[in-house]
Amino acid sequence: MVKFGWLCSHESYQPEILVNQAMLAEEAGFDMVLGSDHFHPWVDDDSAAGFVWSWLGAVAARTELELATSVTCPLYHYHPGLIAQAAATVDRLSGGKLFLGVGTGENINEGPLGFEFGDYKERIGRMREALEIMHRLFAGEKLDFEGEWYTTDKAKLYSPPLGKLPILMAAGGPQSATFAGRRADGLITSVKNPADTIEKVIDPYLASATEHGNDTTILATRWTVFAADRDEAWRALGTMRGLRAEGRLEAVDPMVLRERADTMDRDEILDKYTIVHDVEGLVDAYSELVSDVGADYVSIQVASTDPDRVLDIMKTEVLPELRRL
Hints:
Layout: E1 3-8, H1 15-28, E2 32-35, H2 52-62, E3 66-69, H3 80-93, E4 98-102, H4 107-110, H5 120-138, E5 143-146, E6 151-155, E7 167-170, H6 174-183, E8 186-190, H7 194-211, E9 218-226, H8 230-236, H9 254-263, H10 266-270, E10 274-276, H11 279-291, E11 297-303, H12 307-324
Helix pairs in contact: 1-2, 1-12, 2-3, 3-5, 6-7, 11-12
């Protein structure tokens, strides 16, 4: 049976607000809450950027939900051994219910702290080593590791995870999906067109996982904007508009991304999102992820001017309908 997750946007709300949002998500019937992980947000004028690992501990203490990062980058300002320690701790605090979602990142996390953000070839090489280090530490090994990018000397988790701690890797194309199928425990993918995602991401991932004898978990996500009209949609996207600005992977300053976004035509930004106006639109937006994509988890991310209202709608109308599928 498909499980449903609610993504808490750390770029949009302060962490104490998101703790309450996670509790409301549990009341609404969600199975999981996910947290984004960025050092800087996407714009500088009305944003936030809380430390997701502190927040996850607070959520673990207040809910019984499964937890996930969507996603963290264990490649530069985080050493993979440090992320293994953080994840294992949250896993214990949550009763063994953490999924570690990882990705190859953006410079907005690395550049502000003085790290040089590499190209894809470097980042996927780092990810290969990072996944090996984290898996071996989760397995209880006292690890000596000498790689191209990372070194460990008798590293060991003395507060290990309670059981198997799955590592899900984000992928948007066949190369990363194939890599995830071989080296990760699951896949995170953002869906615009289900047929394209199945062809370019899910099928390569499943083929690779099968080839290497790995179990599979698919977490599919879609970002929607819930608004009465395009003016309200623009307000709802206020903290995220820099995400669609040119050069977002390389930028370090959210002021620059905000300035670039504000010179763009609003429709150019809005057209990159699924904008829905009513309950039927929300159900339609996510029903494809249930019926067509074949995901194990469907992550629901809704930008709105009133997230508490959206969660109430999710509880009374949207989740019951999605579960009937």
